[in-house]
Amino acid sequence: METVDNPRRSWYRDPLWRRRGKARTKALAEYGISVDDYERRFRLQQAVCAICRRPETRRAGGQTSRLAVDHDHAHGRVRGLLCYACNTGLGQFRDRPASLIRAAAYLLRSSGLGGDTPESITDAAASLTSLVPVSPSQGVEKTAPRGRI
Description:
Elements: H1 15-30, H2 35-44, E1 59-60, E2 63-64, E3 68-71, E4 78-82, H3 84-92, H4 97-111, H5 118-129
């Protein structure tokens, strides 16, 4: 195992790198996740945004930015990792699914597929419909548990 004094890891002694590393750890802790949790999510998402499925392209300080930790503002739960564009886009819609759906319908009505394929839109719509809860007024009846009444 390499030690901190190893010359190949001289970057570790760099105060700027250490400040950034500590700041990143502190920022992730605000969402209740560790650096290891972030890295695990990053690998599970195959290093791409959970929405657009593209890698981050925003650059800051001469380097490509990391994917942002997206969280539910009402409950604080981490939802996934997003690129800057998708993360700020969700913020503009104030995390309201109905507004996002209306925006997608607007785009489809006014500009067609906009570069997407029919298959990708069908895939996105199918994943959406599987998440929408069905209300009792739509024909789902509650039944008593079997065995006990």
